[in-house]
Design a protein that fits this description.
The chain has about 120 residues and is mainly β. The chain has a domain at about 10-45 and about 65-90. It contains no helices and ten strands. The chain has strands at about 10, 20, 25-30, 30-35, 45, 65-75, 80-90, 95, 100, 105. The strands form five sheets. Strands 1-10 form a two-stranded antiparallel sheet. The chain has a two-stranded antiparallel ribbon with strand order 2-5. Strand 6 (about 65-75) and strand 7 (about 80-90) form a beta hairpin. It starts with 9 loop residues before the first strand and ends in a 9-residue tail after the last strand.
């Protein structure tokens, strides 16, 4: 079963650039705030090592532009699903002009799992 993401989970662009997540204060796991989609979508990505190259259309990851998977179907906070380590999505980065679809997460906790 997937693990719930928290503000101490690792969420990255797939190139090891870290997403600056924001947790929801209504629910904690081991003292860490759980993540909702709003705490990932639109957030900045720092440290992406990709180099911008106008000739090839390559652009480094700077923000999360879409969350496409990883929402719990059962566990919610204020009616919104918590995010799981099955997270997938896109960033503003591009490889040869194609959007980067490498958004991924590691829960970093084993206390709470959800569907």
């Amino acid at each position: 079963m997937p693990r719930v993401l928290t503000d101490v989970s690792t969420v990255d662009c797939g190139h090891v650039g870290l997403v600056a997540t924001a947790g929801e204060t209504k629910l904690k796991v081991g003292g860490a705030l759980v993540l909702l989609e709003a705490g990932i979508q639109g957030r900045s990505v720092g440290g992406c090592p990709v180099v911008d190259d106008t000739n090839s259309g390559t652009v480094k990851c700077r923000t999360v532009t879409a969350v496409t998977a990883g929402r719990s179907t059962k566990l919610r906070v204020n009616g919104r699903p918590v995010m799981l380590d099955t997270l997938a999505g896109e960033t503003s980065g591009k490889a040869a002009g194609t959007p980067v679809r490498l958004l991924r997460a590691t829960a970093g906790q084993s206390k709470l799992e959800a569907d």
